[in-house]
Every structure is written in structure tokens, then in C-alpha cells.
Amino acid sequence: MRLSNPHSRHPSSMRTRDIVDRARNRILRHFNTSSEQFHIVFTSNATHSLKIVAESFEFGACEHECEVARTLAGSPGGAFVYMRDAHTSVVGMRELVRQRCSRVCAVDFNELENLSAGQHEHTESPTRDLFVITAMSNFCGRKYPLRIIEHIHNWKPGGSFVCLDAASWASTSFLDLSLYKPDFVAISLYKIFGYPTGVGCLLVRTDRSHLLSKHFFGGGTVNLTDHNSFRVYRKTDFIESFEDGTIDFYGIAALERGFDDIDAFGGIKTIQHKTFTLASLTYRALSTRSHANGQPIAEIYCVEPGFVNSEVQGPIVTFNLLRDDGSYVGYTEVEKMCDLFSIELRSGCFCNQGACQSYLRIPPTRLIANYEKGKVCGDTIDIIDGRPVGASRVSFGRQSSEHDVEIFEAMIDACFVSSPSLHHFLSNRIISKPLLTDIFIYPVKSCSSIRVERWKAGTSGFEYDRRWMIVSRHGNILSQKRYPKLCSIQPQKGNVGDKRSVTIPLTSCSDESSESRRICTHRVKTVDCGDEVAQWIDAELDEQGCRLHQVVDEQLTGECNTHGLTTTSLSNEAPYLLINRRSASHLAEMIGLDIKEVTKRFRANLIVDGIEPFLEDSITGMYIGDIPFKVIGHCSRCQMICIDQENGVKDASLLLALRDYRLGSKITFGIYLQLEKGYEGAMLHSAMSVSYTI
């Protein structure tokens, strides 16, 4: 069905307008209210809805700006009050209101409950207070009593108003707007249905629309703009005046199918019951399990007692795992193990720093200290000084099942319930003289390796090592994590002549580099290698639109380096990765794998032998022959080492064995090396002697 801009008047536009109106009415019915009670303004998401309120709310007369957390009672002027347990988008509202109100206050929920009702009953005030209330914590699923809305209204009758952040609540729970009467409600329709991803809405009580006054105006919101006198005549219809530009009418049209799906399932109350039941099962799985020594396996953050009532707890289980000695397991390690079981969960603070601080007991001074140590949102730093700086969160939706819980339990049992350490298996073999035994290069990132006897080294890696990459039709780099078939692509140097092979030149990727398409990936510029190899890759991977790109050496006037040595490569962390054969051998023995297969899975450039197992963890510098390298880090391992490099089949045993060996520390194996300056072009060959410093 063809739709079009509802601001026009042709048939498809009128059809679109009708569909949008039906969607508004369907949303109102879903929340048990009507257009007589609430306006619905379509937005791009809940964050956008909150931003509109922050930009538009009229606080009235403003005396001055006060410091945050000043006591509400007895202070003149309009106030902006938000809960500490709030999404970042709510906290961000304060930056828009600080110049228009006299107080900005972050409070705990019990402080709101302690407000004395009717305190300002006989006080005439030209100012208004705006309270932004979290309906359900997106951090841990705690549901706050919505009776607080009426309590706030009664605290300062006619002068205190409530904006309800219902994005998390409404995703799986019934919000009855005939029973609770917030003045504004922010909703994410994406969180309810999973699609469309760019549609939310702001519900505004019809008797509160006068409290919002827009300054900006966009397409479709005005009757007339006068460029000469700077006058603007806005639409008198509230909804039309607030929906700037063209709304996502195709996304909005899909909402009806979403609501039909909810109804067919039994309604939102049925979803609320089902998802809470699954979360309860997960809570019990974590709370009742323990290590062999009796120590609990998890610290769970929720309303106490845990998961007894869906009216006070949503379908979210937030936790940190514990080792048998009581120390914390970092959420990054949890993510890696979940990947093995195809479990997708969230990690970190989930854009709710206030709740994160509270539940993880992070004082303000520690928060800033952690930031100064490099901790930022979205990174992989999960533990600082033995304390967690984030958590893991499991959430359930309509399509979740008990099977999902069973898989989660299996992951916990297999990966985190204590098992015997591998340390006692380490033998006391006689250590011979350390030697470099193997050299590997990986010309195409995430594809198979070439074993060489001698090879030229540079400060950015071996010649031709990771100088090509395969990108999808969307421009994303392909890796074995998502495309295990990449291990079947075997680069070889020279003219193979096989009908199933394709040949590309090493000296140039394009005759006309100025016309070649370049992309920037990990700050590395590349150039397309042509259609022939692209078609060959599509056939090998059974994909469409893949391209092969080669790194551009910018120090050579933007052309591909004819010697294969570039100032940058596609290595993830460092130019060289070295592993110790003795360490790999011990892991191989414990899980019954061939040592050759294990070393292939670790995808190292250099393999040394004759070094005590795991001694490489302490090495700070190394000479291979008389060529110096410095150690610049340890290689953190993920599900990549679970992929059999011969057939692409996943087997988690190696990662689990390494996890057990590392008990209490990061899952690392191998060290990153950097060639010291002045040794560009040095030749390495197998059987070279190895010396090191600790």
C-alpha cells in the first residue's frame, strides 16, 4: 500500500493521515484512555519525548539558579526534580531547564514519599515544579508505586506536575492511564514491539497542554511565517504544532500489526505475567546456585524480597557473578561466555548511572576516580580495584521462553560454577633453550594463515600481514565471529593456477586509485581490489555484495605500498601476537585437542618454545635473535578461539579451559609485541634464539 506525506492533500496523503489517526487511537486504547484525556505526539523515541518536555515546559517566574539537591520545601521559584534512578535521557533534561527554573534536584524515591501533602495548599505561587518520575528502573526492573503521581500533585496543588518516564514499564507491563494521571508520559514504541525502531510518543494531558510552549518550529507546524517581520503564526491544533517535519508514517502504519499481535497473545497483562515468570525462574537459578565450597555465584540487584510480585518488579534480572573466593567476575567475561551459547544480554550501567552507583555502592569520589582511570560508558573496563563498575542484565519480552532460561542456566553451570583449576596439571618438564619455532602471516583479516620459514618484519607488522580485509555490502568488516566460513579462505603467495582460486597483484590494487572507493575503518584507509575477486568471495562465502579492500599507505602519497609494509594494518591491537607453545600444549592436554589445532585457533604470528608455561605473562621485553621487541599488552580472548580453523565448527572447550586456568583474572593468552624503532625490514626466520626480560 502506497503512503505519502500526510501534510499533502492527495489520496495517498489522506490515506496516510487516516492510518496515523487510527494508530493514535490504538495507543490510547492500549493505555486505557481516550483523546478526550490525552494528546499523542509522535516522536522518534522516548528520549525525544523527554526532550520536548524539557524544552517546552513553562516553569513560570524564575528568581535564580540554585545548586543541585537544594531542599525543596520553603524555597521560592519553579523546581526541576528527577530521581537518581533515572535514564541518562532524564538526567540530560536538567541541562535544558537549568536557566529557566530556580532549583534542580536529584532525589531518591523515599524523599518524594516524604513530601508533606498540602504543604503549599494556601500559597499563591506563579511558579511550577516539574517532577520526572521513573516508572520502572531500566537498571534492575524495580517498579515504583505510581500512586506517587497523585501525592506530588497534592503536595503543591496546581503547581506541581509529573512527567512519567514509562519507556521501560510499558515494554511489558500494563499502564492504566484511567487510574494514574501523570501530566506527561514518555513512551518508546520500539521497546513494546521491537519494530519500528524510530518511533516513540509523548502523551500530554489535554488539560495540561498549555504548560508546554514551543520555541522552535518545523515543517507542518505553522500556518504562516513572515520573513520580513519575523512573525510566525503557529498551528492551533496542539498535536500539529508539536510534530515537526514529516513523521515516520510507514513505521507508524506498522503499529497496528503490533497491537494486533499483542491482542492475539492475550493482551499486555498476559505478557506481563509471562515475562515476570521467566524473570523469576532466572532469579531463582542465580540465587539458589552456589560453588562447591558453598559460596554464592551471584550478587543480584532487585527489590527485596526478590521477584514475588509483578506489581513491584519487572522482567529484568541484573547481577554480577562471583567466584568461589568471593571475588567478582567482570561482565566482559560474562559476555564472552554468553556468546558461546548465543545469549545476548546487556552489560555496563545501561545508561542509568544513578542506579548503578547505588546498587554497586560506588561513592561519588570513586565514580570520578574511576573516570580518571579511563572508565567511560560503553567500554570493556568492568572491575577496578576489585570492585565492579557495571553489571550484567537479562531482560525478557513476549517472545522469550523457558528454553531461553534453560540455556542461561546451562551457561552458568558450564562456565561459572567452580571447577578444578588447571594449575595442578602443569608439569615440571625440563625447559630447553627458547627458540622461535613458527612464523605465520594472515594476509586477509580473519582468513587462514600462511606458514613461512623466514619473513620481513616492520614496525607495523610482517610484510603483507593483515593488509587486506573483506567487507560486506554495508561496509562492515567480516570476521570469523559472525562468518566462520572465512577460515576456509586460504591465501597463498604465488600463482596457484587452481580453477577455484583467484589471483590479485601485491603491488597495486587499482590502476586509478583516485577513482577507487575508499573507506575508513579503525582509522585505516583502504582501496577496493576489483570485481573479479569480489565475485569469487561471494561464491566462496555464499554472500552477496562482499568486496576485498587493501590498506592504503598514506605515507606513500596515498598509494598501496608496493613492498607490503604500511604504516598501519588491520591488526586489532598490535603488530605482532606471540604465543608460547608450552602454554598451548597444557591447555590442549586438558581438553584432549591436538596441539596443532590449538595453536591454529590462537592465530598467532610468532610461536616460541622452550619457555616455562605461562611465563610469557610476566615478560616485558624480548629479543628474537638480535632483533628487539617490546611487550605492549596481553591478548584478551573471546569466542574466536572456539572456531575450528579447519572447518569453522564452534567448540567452546578451549575457551572454557583458559577461563578455568585464569581463575579470577582476565581471559588472556599470548602477548602483543612491537618491533623497536630502527629495525624496519629485519628478517625473522624459524629456529632463531629467543631471550627475554621479566
Automatic annotation (TrEMBL):
GO terms for molecular function: catalytic activity; molybdenum ion binding; pyridoxal phosphate binding. This is Molybdenum cofactor sulfurase. Keywords: Molybdenum cofactor biosynthesis. Residues 549-694 form the MOSC domain. It comes from Ascaris suum. The keyword Membrane does not apply. InterPro entries: Aminotrans_V_dom (IPR000192), MoCF_Sase_C (IPR005302), MOCOS_middle (IPR005303), PyrdxlP-dep_Trfase (IPR015424), PyrdxlP-dep_Trfase_major (IPR015421), PyrdxlP-dep_Trfase_small (IPR015422), Pyrv_Knase-like_insert_dom_sf (IPR011037). GO terms for biological process: Mo-molybdopterin cofactor biosynthetic process. PANTHER family: MOLYBDENUM COFACTOR SULFURASE (PTHR14237:SF80), MOLYBDOPTERIN COFACTOR SULFURASE MOSC (PTHR14237).
